[in-house]
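#lab-general

N.A. 3:47 PM
ok so I finally got the sequence cleaned up, no stray characters, all 79 residues accounted for. can someone with queue access submit it? mine expired

B.Y. 3:52 PM
send it over

N.A. 3:53 PM
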Amino acid sequence: MELGAEWSLMLYTDGLIEGRVGDTGERLGQDGMVEMIRRRLSEGLRGEDLLRTAVNEVRDLNGGELTDDVAVLLLDRAV
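B.Y. 4:20 PM
back already:
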């Protein structure tokens, strides 16, 4: 598969998307995570800043520390 000149691949454990969203008790889920990352990318965040912001936002939405382990890896290529 040819990826082109600019691309990103983000891998993460389920601990990141299983966090709760405020008082609703609803999980963030994959769709919520994708929406959040797209929003942050549109704001110009990239690399380590994107990852740090994403993990912090998930914790904030959860109302504190997450109950499962979290690992995130971002591979990207920018021209």
